[in-house]
Prior knowledge:
- This protein is of the alpha+beta class and about 475 residues long.
- Helix content is about 35%, strand content about 20%.
- It folds into 3 domains: about 40 residues, no CATH class; about 180 residues, CATH 3.90.1700.10; about 220 residues, CATH 3.90.1710.10.
- The protein contains 15 helices and 17 strands.
- Helix 7 crosses helix 8 and helix 14 crosses helix 15.
- It is globular and about 60 Å long.
Amino acid sequence: xxxxxxxxxxxxxxxxxxxxxxxxxxxxxxxxxxxxxxxxxxxxxxxxxxxxxxxxxxxxxxxxxxxxxxxxxxxxxxxxxxxxxxxxxxxxxxxxxxxxxxxxxxxxxxxxxxxxxxxxxxxxxxxxxxxxxxxxxxxxxxxxxxxxxxxxxxxxxxxxxxxxxxxxxxxxxxxxxxxxxxxxxxxxxxxxxxxxxxxxxxxxxxxxxxxxxxxxxxxxxxxxxxxxxxxxxxxxxxxxxxxxxxxxxxxxxxxxxxxxxxxxxxxxxxxxxxxxxxxxxxxxxxxxxxxxxxxxxxxxxxxxxxxxxxxxxxxxxxxxxxxxxxxxxxxxxxxxxxxxxxxxxxxxxxxxxxxxxxxxxxxxxxxxxxxxxxxxxxxxxxxxxxxxxxxxxxxxxxxxxxxxxxxxxxxxxxxxxxxxxxxxxxxxxxxxxxxxxxxxxxxxxxxxxxxxxxxxxxxxxxx
Length: 463
């Protein structure tokens, strides 16, 4: 008798809701299965607000606007000159609003470092006193059309990228990426940190700005993200392809506009050796894509998802000025030598703007190598993306995944679907040391906390 063949076609991807026995049977036949702990919906299904607004239509319009966005990198400038409302005593930070007294260690460390870098304090001790005495204004980056990775600090002198969504005309901002290790965004401070920041201000920024000014219409970031997703990035914690594509786009202009060959080479090498350089660009692009969706009455799609290391916060497109918060989660991660879970600060950073815009961890199916950085396996990466379709209203038209037959990435986190399914967004992230001044200790994965989504859904029920 001929050997029995596998009855299921390969590859087969399945989502099993409910009894795990069905998932076990499919796995035995070679299928990749995402198991969802499902029970009948615990909340009423909402189609209209109390005022009669069609939620489905509102969410469709929000996702249409995000899909239609065309973020392009136009240039750079000091934060105080290009970010509306920025002033010499303003420090922007990642996540929802927070006072100095509640800031976590790495965010405090980054604030202290920024105040020394700005010349507002002679040392970190004096910087901490200034912050504690109310001599500095703190505000979320998101309140100023900006985003910042990890601690997310933007101080007045820091050069920031300027990204325009050419479909709608709105601008978004993000700093230049310092690299990994002992860097300000992970809460580190000290002479080496300040030396790098000043080199970025005095050498990297003007060199890149001159090159960008010579490129008509700037650099198409949507196209770069789309290509990077096809090359193994997810454009949050894996940016090797995106950084390479950016270098390919900027280098001819860099060579034409920089009169000093050694300086041009130093700029090229700094970016080439920093695989995460593209992260800040992808974040600014995501912010530019999401803001036109804000202010659509009745939309239950997220326009913001961010963390400050103490709180995790979300905002809805239908109520964009209101934060819903919960305690920041604990990251399940891989640690650098000499560090462990006991050293880790809770989840931190604005970089979840990437997942909110339809890539990052939501695109992990196309970035199996991310498992080497944040833990897990290629199968986990695939299952993450498949599960996230369950809580998203739509799929992206321009960000597609070859591993899923070029299916669009999950787009439009819908608090109704989170409430109905009990599935929370999956995230991947770096890990900062819980004490100020130390820096990066690892990277990992986690889910967004339930409480902020539950609060947002209760608010939607009262609309």
